[in-house]
């Protein structure tokens, strides 16, 4: 049981780092390392509308595939979103809901694949 908890925490820390890199890392790169303002804006808008939802979906999918459904991953996605307030000085709840839904859908599909894989191992 202790090994299972330790492994879960390791995986959640990895998921936290992925989520934080999408919420904060891209913006740090866009605002501080790229001097071209147009390229910087493209990166930020692309991250908001495309990259972050895809990465959160894939993170949820992989986490669900290897560990089953995890409400703690969804809580991480939901609670780490306010980190973006530091960059934009505002909070848009619609993005927070959409990002959480992307992670929920990915985690649900991954959990479904996890249960199917588990059944296939029991009954080949």
UniProtKB/TrEMBL annotation:
TM region positions: 12-34, 46-66, 73-91, 97-116
Keywords, comma-separated and alphabetical: Membrane, Transmembrane, Transmembrane helix
Highest taxon above the source species: Bacteria
Record's keyword annotation contains Transmembrane: yes
Stated name of the protein: TIGR04086 family membrane protein
Organism whose genome encodes this protein: Streptococcus suis (strain GZ1)
Phylogenetic placement of the source organism: Bacteria, Bacillati, Bacillota, Bacilli, Lactobacillales
